[in-house]
Design a protein that fits this description.
The structure holds two protein chains of two kinds. Chain A is of the alpha/beta class. Chain A has eleven helices and eleven strands. In chain A, helix 8 links the parallel strand 7 and strand 8. The longest helix of chain A has 15 residues. Chain A is globular and about 60 Å long. Chain B is of the alpha/beta class. Chain B contains ten helices and eight strands. A six-stranded parallel beta sheet of chain B has the order 2-1-3-4-8-7, with helices on both faces. A two-stranded antiparallel sheet of chain B has the order 5-6. In chain B, strand 3, helix 6 and strand 4 form a beta-alpha-beta unit. Classes of the chains: A alpha/beta, B alpha/beta.
Chain lengths: ~300, ~300
């Protein structure tokens, strides 16, 4: 058994403050359980900077850390907080290199979970930042993927928004793409919906529907996945085109990815994410991303159309 | 606070003749640079919004005399700080003329100028965002001295009055918050916007703070005192003589700080030196703008 994603995040963060003079900035970093064990257990380290509850200022303060050369990790405990927390990062950090030639590299760890939190706090909200040029977006779900995203951050000077999902923190294995010749459909999957897609794929296979599954740890730019040829070949070879699955509302990332791929392949590519409704707290009023059931149903609908 | 009827700091033996004249030279440089920008803008050569500091020259000139070598986080009305702290004037002129040789390669225009040479960082256009960035910079640089400049309206932003200022207070960061208070948010006066005074709120957070006029000697005196124990906040009342954006003159009969400063200097028997500074500054800026507009 390998290192879990949780431990990978914690180890990388600790190395960053101990060896790179980096900082970790966020609200309730230590006393609330170290963001479920992903923040290093060295509370007195000066590189760990507890912030006041200053949701609007914190993104800008992180920009100050970045301009000072500390390459901050900004921890946003719930992606719903993005509506306040990432304003500074999205507007200043993303534009700094183009505006001034001075990079403003921030590693934004923003945590999602699916359902159970009503209309606030949880869910994936990377769509908010998808429209902003100058910032990369990733949703690594395995230890190696996370290392790869982190290495990109260290090797470049770009701000990166990292959509983490609690459901993936215990993963201690890698997720491989699954490709067959003449598949019925190709699933391109993001974040926790990758696990859901695996589940749906198995169920569809039992019914004789073959699916290719391609994992997308990088959401923007898609090229960073280094799978362009694989994606295009798989789509062109798939009888019914493709389906992009994600945990956010599909109006931003999933539909954009599908749009680009349709133009490149001439194949129909669908998008499946949250439903267009507000989640309630009662279980029957919740709003989940592309669940195994919804992926299964959508593919059945496409194949039987 | 807007009147000239303030304590006569110029008469106190607080600053040398050389310091006083250098402060005035900086006021002249800002004024003359901005007057040429106005001329050029009036001719239609500038195709983007401009934010001039005419009438407010005393603040950057005086602050830069005392608060030396900070990292500078200003916002859209910032030519005065760039000039006073020694930014490259040719690059600033080129920036306003949209040239690739500008200090922000033409990307920043008047509102987002920068200068790595003097550690002046660009601004993103959200009023007051420079304050929390300044706070973060100071915190991450292990308590390096910074200057955060904004207007009276930007100071109201929640990430300033409820974010950056208390953050600096809690962590005892060496930040000087400077509010250029012309009592207007574009055209809306303070009393229509809020019931509190920025300096009082800062004081409640534990900052040393003052609310003063833009008399340059009063500014220099207070910067010197406040910078002994940062963070601190200065709310400086001032009057601009041009519109919020652009180069239209506005009626401003009740205060002309530049003339008042000259009068004070004459009382100090420095009339001859003042005339020489004015002449050389005007000549320098004339040559500068001639060169930049010929290219």
């Amino acid at each position: 058994m390998g290192e879990t994603l949780r431990n990978t995040i914690c180890r990388i963060s600790q190395e960053h403050i101990e060896k790179n003079n980096g900082t970790i900035l966020g609200e309730c970093l230590i006393d609330g359980g170290r963001v479920r064990g992903t923040v290093p257990d060295i509370p007195e380290h000066p590189g760990i900077m507890e912030s006041p509850m200053s949701d609007l200022a914190i993104g800008y303060v992180a920009c100050g850390h970045a301009l000072a050369g500390r390459k901050p990790i900004l921890v946003v405990r719930f992606q719903g907080f993005n509506w306040f927390n990432i304003i500074g990062s999205a507007n200043y950090a993303a534009k700094s290199k183009e505006m001034s030639g001075i990079p403003c590299p921030i590693f934004i760890r923003s945590v999602a979970m699916d359902g159970g939190f009503g209309p606030v706090a949880s869910g994936s909200h990377y769509g908010l930042i998808y429209r902003m040029p100058g910032i990369k977006i990733a949703a690594p779900s395995t230890p190696k993927e996370y290392e790869s995203v982190w290495n990109n951050f260290i090797e470049t000077n770009d701000p990166i928004y990292v959509s983490e999902h609690r459901a993936t923190w215990d993963i201690d294995y890698e997720l491989e793409d699954s490709i067959e010749k003449k598949a019925d459909i190709t699933i391109l999957s993001i974040s926790s919906t990758r696990l859901n897609a695996l589940n749906a794929k198995k169920r569809l296979s039992d019914e004789g529907i073959t699916t290719n599954l391609i994992h997308l740890p990088w959401i923007k730019p898609l090229d960073l996945n280094k799978k362009n040829d694989l994606i295009l070949e798989s789509l062109l070879d798939s009888k019914y085109g493709g389906l992009v699955t994600e945990g956010d509302y599909p109006a931003a990332a999933a539909k954009n990815i599908a749009y680009d791929l349709m133009h490149k392949t001439g194949k129909r590519v669908y998008a499946l994410g949250l439903e267009e409704k507000t989640a309630g707290f009662a279980p029957h009023l919740d709003n989940f991303p592309a669940t195994p059931e919804r992926i299964y149903n959508k593919i059945k609908e496409i194949v039987c159309e | 606070m807007n009147s000239s009827d303030t304590k006569h700091y110029s008469n106190l033996p607080l600053f040398s003749k050389e310091e006083t004249l250098e402060m005035f030279r900086r006021m002249c440089d800002i004024r003359n640079f901005e007057l040429y920008v106005k001329q050029i803008n009036d001719k239609g050569l500038i195709k983007a919004p401009i934010y001039l500091s005419l009438g407010q020259e005393s603040i950057p000139a005086a602050v830069s005399m005392i608060y030396k070598n900070p990292a500078i986080f200003a916002q859209h009305r910032c030519h005065g700080y760039y000039i006073s702290y020694g930014g490259n004037l040719e690059e600033l002129a080129d920036e306003l003329l949209h040239k690739p040789t500008g200090c922000s390669r033409g990307m920043g225009g008047s509102a987002s100028i920068q200068s790595p040479k003097i550690r002046m960082f660009w601004h993103d256009g959200f009023m007051g965002s420079n304050a929390p960035i300044a706070v973060g910079y100071s915190e991450a640089k292990k308590y390096e001295k910074v200057l955060a400049v904004m207007g009276d309206a930007a100071a109201e932003e929640d990430y300033v009055i409820g974010g950056a200022i208390p953050w600096a207070a809690s962590k005892k960061l060496p930040v000087l918050f400077l509010i250029e208070d012309n009592n207007l948010s574009v055209m809306t006066p303070v009393e229509k916007r809020r019931s509190w005074r920025t300096a009082k709120v800062a004081e409640a957070y534990g900052l040393n703070s003052v609310e003063i006029s833009d008399d340059p000697w009063e500014i220099m005196y207070n910067v010197r005192e406040l910078s002994k124990d940062l963070p601190a906040l200065m709310n400086i009342h001032t009057k601009r003589t041009v519109s919020h954006n652009g180069s239209d003159l506005i009626k401003n009969s009740d205060l002309d700080r530049f003339s008042l400063t000259k009068q004070e200097l004459e009382k100090l028997s420095l009339k001859k030196e003042v005339e020489e500074i004015e002449r050389s500054s005007e000549s320098f800026m004339s040559d500068l703008w001639k060169r930049r507009t010929e290219n």
